[in-house]
Amino acid sequence: MQKENVHRVLIKRYQNRKLYDTHNSTYVTLDDISKMIKSSLDVQIIDNRTKEDLTAVTLAQIIFEEEKKKQSLLPLFALKRIIQEGGESIKDFFEKTIDTGVSSISRAKEGAEKVIDRIKDELVPDDDGNILQEVIHRTQDFSKKIDEKIKSTVESVAHVASLQNEIRNLRKKISYLEKKLTENEK
After folding, report:
1. Rounded Cα gap, residues 8 and 40, in angstroms
2. Pairing of strands 19-21, 42-47
3. What is the pLDDT of residues 134-153, one digit of tens each?
4. Whole-number Å distance between alpha carbons of 71 and 34
5. What percent of the chain is helix, strand and coil (3-state, nearest 5)?
């Protein structure tokens, strides 16, 4: 599939929908492009005739194919949310998700540093042999608490998405029942 490691791979899409790797002078499939991306290559796909950038569309096709193979890249609630919010908010959705994760990691790091400082203050100088064990024990406890917090946050986000879906379905049912009542009154 590749002759050598390249920073950017240019793929041309022809009118017959074939994808051509210009660097390696060979036709490629969506699966090949997926493998390139997974190996951290920067891939750009353009229309050979119009020179239009088709990278985003092609990556969406790859995600679609991965979902069909049951190799889910995104949780179902995230896919639904992306569709509900439209194109502009896809970027926002991922930025918020990443920002939340980075913030959580930063808070966890700060918390761990505070715990380590507190442990250092509590230890007596002749406890050197137990310092490492105490740090490991407290770090494990702290890690468990962080894991539980992340798990509960993910579950609550999934629950909110599920509730939104249920509310939408209930609204449809209410609308249907109101329509039936109106028809029966006539």
Report:
1. 10
2. unpaired
3. 777 788 888 888 878 777 77
4. 12
5. 70, 10, 20
